[in-house]
Amino acid sequence: MRRQRAIDVLVIGGGPAGLAAAGRLARVGAGTVEVLEREGRAGGVPRHCHHRGFGRWGVTGPQYADRLVEAALGAGVAVRTGVSATGWAGALVVDTTGPHGLERITARAVVLATGARERPRAARLVPGTRPAGVYTTGELQQAVHLHHQRIGTRAVVVGAEPVSYAALAALRRAGVEVAALVTEETRPQVGRARAASARLGRRVPLLTGTTIVELLGRGRLSGVRLRHADGRPGAIACDTVVFTGDFVPEQELARRGRVPLDSGTRGPAVDGAFRTAARGVFAVGNVLHAVEPARAAAREGAAAAVAVRRHLEGADWPASAGLPVEAVAPLRWVAPNRLVPGEPPVPGARFLLRTAETLVRPVLLVTQGGRCLHRARVPRRVLANGSLHLSGAWVGLVDAAGGAVRIGLG
Ligand SMILES: Cc1cc2nc3c(=O)[nH]c(=O)nc-3n(C[C@H](O)[C@H](O)[C@H](O)COP(=O)(O)OP(=O)(O)OC[C@H]3O[C@@H](n4cnc5c(N)ncnc54)[C@H](O)[C@@H]3O)c2cc1C
């Protein structure tokens, strides 16, 4: 038997985005606000990131997570840990399972804040045996920082993104020698100083233009086979490999609720008020677009709270999904990816874009049916896979009958 309850706002996911949304909603008197977190502690990814660099003051991940949890609890949010949302029994009716059994929770608004996950080795289609010693960064960090497990002696890290360097730090903390960072890209996707400090200071070679083509070993990993960009084969002996980066939104729950997804981000499609196409269902944080800094996720959560409150107070829900907002190559995707003509993004929200190529001081161009709506120069270099932001100042110029809005380079 499922216990049945009704509340005002149900936030699914207790990471920075969900906690920030819930905290703000409780502070503005949005009624009963509850966060469900499937792990034993709330805080999301920062819980197991022991390096500094979180929030405005660059504190460690666990310190940052604790502050967010304290702020939410202090505002009157019910934070329930060890509880997973498993499915939907109606438009705003969520089934859960946790230490106290099965529940069915009906809410006036549901906020999806389920974060993102790294694609594991299987999803990356790397051939070879299935030995022990293969991790994603998240699995590695949990093993090192939360469970204090023994990892191995010599590792290869696949990727050269910020998260790959976080994996490098976790391996060193666990006493594991790092044989190399290996990336298919032609250059690291972090700033020069960070790349140089790993290569020169820590003497970890970076193999660019290189692909892992096979995992070797029975029982335990014994090495990886490589192919360099010029076709040369290679191999590295190691007992540990960490697949890093390549994040995808954790959108299973959204999919089960038939919440439409965006083909670019692969997360729920939302408009500038973080509304999905399902009435009463909002989405925030990395579930919308994979990994951004924790502060950006928390900022989205806080911004979405404004829209959730308006909805609780009876604001109209758009009758249609709105106009599509599309990214033009080399831009990969944009979020929000829908817009309601004449309605600017809620305060604190902005358009987030990801580029496939490194760009030097690019000009972003917003067009609709060939008509230029806005131009904005980004006054810096943006590395491949890096993020760009665009305000929604131009949304008032969008023609409701003009079709898709495109954001590309000028
Ligand atoms: C290795 C690594 C290093 C990073 N380093 C930094 C850094 O130095 N500085 C920085 O600012 N950012 C960093 N980030 C990014 C930052 O951690 C994330 O952007 C931030 O945590 C995103 O917040 P979120 O709330 O969207 O998602 P998450 O933090 O992923 O939280 C989502 C939560 O939802 C829960 N959940 C999912 N599905 C369900 C369900 N069905 N039921 C109940 N609960 C569910 C998950 O357990 C999780 O706790 C790093 C990320 C990684 C992976």
Description:
With 410 residues, the chain is an alpha/beta fold. It has helices at 16-27, 61-75, 137-146, 162-173, 192-201, 252-256, 286-289, 294-312; strands at residues 3-12, 33-37, 52-54, 59-60, 78-81, 84-90, 93-98, 101-112, 116-118, 134-136, 154-158, 177-182, 206-207, 210-216, 223-228, 233-237, 240-243, 247-249, 281-283, 323-327, 331-335, 338-339, 351-355, 359-360, 363-368, 371-377, 381-382, 387-390, 405-409. Strands 1, 2, 5, 6, 7, 8 and 19 form a seven-stranded mixed β-sheet that branches. A hairpin with a 2-residue loop joins strand 6 (84-90) and strand 7 (93-98). Helix 1 (16-27) runs parallel beside helix 2, helix 1 runs parallel beside helix 8 and helix 3 (137-146) packs parallel to helix 4. The longest helix has 19 residues, at 294-312. The mean pLDDT is 94. The chain binds flavin-adenine dinucleotide. Flavin-adenine dinucleotide binds at residues 12-18, 36-39, 44-46, 49, 51, 53-54, 84-85, 113-115, 137-138, 141, 163, 166, 250, 253, 285-286, 291-295, 297.
Radius of gyration: 22 Å
Low-confidence stretches: none
What is the number of beta strands?
29
Net shape: globular
**What is the CA-CA span between the terminal residues?**
59 Å
Mean pLDDT equals 94
| Helix count from the secondary structure assignment | 8
Strand content of the residues, in percent?
25-35%
Percent of residues in helices comes to 10-25%
- Structural class assignment: alpha/beta
**What ligands are attached or bound here?**
flavin-adenine dinucleotide
Biggest sheet: strands, sense, closure?
7 strands, mixed
